[in-house]
Amino acid sequence: MLPEAAELLVLAAAALLFALVFAPAAASRRNLLVQGGTGMVATAAIAVVPTFDLALLTIVGLGVMQAGIPGKRTLAVRLRAPVLAVAVLAFALVFLRVEGPAVLERFAAVGLVAGLAAAVGLFPYIHPFAADEPVAASPIVWIAFVGPVLAAVVLSRAEGLLSVDAGQALAAMLIGLGVINMAWGSIASWLTDDTAAAWRYSFLADWGLVLCGFGLTLSDGRRAALLVLFGIVVGRLPLYLVSREPRAERVTSEGPINLVVAAALAGSAPFVGFAARVLLLRGATQLFWPLALVLALGMLLWLPGSLRLGRSLGRPRGRQAFGVALAVAVNVAAGFYPLPLLAAAKL
Amino acid sequence: MPSAAVLAPVALPLVAAGVIAVFRLAGMRLGRVAAAIGAWGAVAALLAVWIPVRSSLELTLGALGYGSSFDLRIDAVTFAFGLMIATPTAVLLTLQPRTWQEMSISLVGLASAIAAIEGGSVVLTALAGATAGTVAIVLLETEDPRAPRPSWATVLAGWLALSWVGVMLQVGGGTAVYSAVPVATVTAPLFAVLAVAALLASNLFPWRTWPADLWSRPSLRAAGITVAILYPLGFYLLVRAYELGDGRYPNPLFHAGLAILGVTAAFGAAARAQAAATRRKFLGEVIPFFGGFALASIAIGTALGLVAGLVLLATAAAMVACLALLPDRAGLAAMVSIAAAVGLPPGLAFGARVIGIEATFEAGDLLGLIGVAAAAAWALLMVGGARAIGLPGGRGHPATETFAGVSMAIAVLTLLAGPAIAAVQTGFANPVATEVMSTSALGGGLTTVDTVSSVLPAVTLFAPLLILGVLVYAVAGTSAIRTQSRAALFKLPEGGIWQRARETVRALTVPEQYRSILNIRELEIAAVGGQPLLWLAALAALAFAVTR
Amino acid sequence: MIEGVAGFVAWLGASVVVLSDGRRGLALGAALSTLALAAIVLSGAGPVAGIALGVGGLTAAARRLTVGVAGWGIMPPGSTPRFILCVGGGLLALWIALGVTSGHSSALRFAVITVAGLAGARVLSSGESSVLLTSVALLALATAAASGLTEEALAIWPYVGAAAIAASVGWLPQSAPRAA
User: Fold this and answer.
1) What contacts A245, CB < 8 A, 6 or more positions away?
2) pTM of the model
């Protein structure tokens, strides 16, 4: 198994554990355990299976199982994105395996990028979202739970399959989509009417950084991507879960904890997002310095949305307050000293 | 001295913050004692580490994971800026009552700021400085979310820019450690980004920014701490930039440009100060004036200018504590504070400004004009100070937060310290110049300040002035001072250009016929609607793009 | 020759799935595509792979025969665009399989492209659960069949996995959407 994928799997398991322990009262822990456990198994399968075909089949299976969970969206809406992802990835595999003109490899690169974006739910393949849908049935599962492992698997396999020319095309597309997702996600998180949608867009913005990191094709880019994925799975996702209190109790608040959470979500120091941004800037500077300038300016867009999301936590009490503190503390530790995380992923 | 001692100034406030929080969660209040111990402990640690040996002490603990090692260092620069940050913070934490959250957050901010200046590499400084900025914002919002505070975007932008500088140094020169960066790596574009980072970190601009705005908050507990821990950091970067560039900035235009910016900022502060409607508003411009003048002195590029700037910053640090403790009501404390702030002779501010102006003349070429402009700004501030004595006090602050006696004592101390400016320069500022400019120490010793072309006999000149001033006060008291309201020399435009520009931009609307295209809500609905056609079109677009 | 016919039958089956709304039509289309893919895979990956694929697909077809909209529903009113999609998609897949790409088993290339493409398009264009699940089953089979395009030694697992998915999707509980 890829060390990165293994590490992300462990982090996903930790996030599931967090959800079980600190889930809002309205959620059924038993359902969460069954659904989350199944998702974990499927995600692990994506990382463990020896061939890419099996990974695609696992995605199909996972998509179908998730579509069967009772939710607000129709079956068609929930199936479309994973099916499109698998179809496009399958086409990519076909183009890689057959002999033909060199442009086929570029189309394969298109398929890999588009398939990944469709599976995770990134722009322009944003999954339709219903604010009051259970988390297990919502697109958040793809973007924050399965997606990180999937991205690591797809992009690492792509490295071995693509030629240099096609690899450069892949990298360029990843950076292009990354910048677009950064901008879209951060601005939408700030301006959208619904707070739950704002949370979802904030995941999108972080994924923009991930795509840019993978697109940089340098070790610093991979490290940055890993740290952002860490922040998504162990920071943003747990905080999102805490924010989903039942409507009657939900209030917005601006106490110290809300601002600290906002800082964590914005990628401010000393949280892991800042370390990731430093690495991303380093990678971009090595490759093409104007890109670093664009990234640095884009990073400022996180702030307004993050302040909004921080306030949406309200005043966490008791167990949830402890959960928030735990998520924040882990982020601080990783932000200050990310070396063990990177070493574990052999980066 | 063991290397681990460099951790003490950072660790002590952090431990104190933790202890306060833990005890409070356990139901016990420790009050200001713990906060005072933590903050004064940092001061004591700095003194204990530096004074016995007066040479660099460094601790390197290995890689952190983002191209930087855990590298902390206490040298002359750290010592000077550390005292500037820690001492006023300690005074405020000792005297002003706060909630336990505010105490803990303040101590974390202090630790972060000290970590920023102890950081041995640019990246570490950026990380710690950004932390200090974040903590300061949290502190201000915790105290009063509706009161003015720095824009988080500008704070973060400055430290992001610095982290970019750090990674550029790593990429171009292999390291971002201050003492190891190859000089050739510090190019003009890189320095430009560093300068922008420094200016954003301290908001050193000619228009009114947070170093002035914060003083108009209803309470000055958080404002004082924020200015104490954040304001010196931008200057710190500009001082370290000398070390990076082996004693100079990469282009003479940077010296001139930053100096001009500094004097413009000082002039702007003085202009606003003389038009202030209340004494509190006048005093709010004091720190920006000090900062502008200090920037001009530091940026001029000579050792004399650097030491003058440092002494000014040290005086400003004292004034931060003074202003935060000063009540708004009229009285002797207010008068003495104004006298110290405007730089009445023979105070420390007076001496440092004189040396700073002298440095611009000695720098040569047309840089002397900067000194002339600085003198004009100073004169304007003095006029404003004279007017401010007769102004209404301001909105007032809770009595428990103000300590008129202590405030006055600090102001008096800066006035009394004027004759000792040579000693301050020798012990406090000279080692910094030696460290970063790789020059020999300025001459003069404890009683005089040697410049290139002359000698300032500080003790013999200032001490009699001081005695004279004390005698005059003893004889006449304050009866000779007329506290009447005077008109401003000139009024500033109401609302300001920026405000009007912002309102104009906000009032802009998309023409009716284009609204359907630029409707953000519709765009969002289209993007998240899961439209298969859109998805397929995106796929086709990507396929088309890769064939180009 | 057999492979060529199998390729055509695979396209035909996928087209029937695209053009049908009723369970009988869907079952017929699924069965045709399954048999065609199994025949092609049989010659390439061996009998076990072919049989696994066949069993999985036929199970899906059999399940479809019992669940869904009653009747055949082949080419209902308004299905002209789908018809054009089938013809156009088939021609495009043929061109890619024969004219653009090369390598062993052009029939496999054609079958995979046409079945995966048409199944994917059907999922994107329909909201009926029986149609969606049948298309998903076909997509799984096509994905597994694509593993035969590689020159490496073929493992059995993709085929078994696809068969399991195809066989089980028909049993997915089809709950109506509701609030949390």
Assistant:
1) A24, A26, A314, A320
2) 0.91
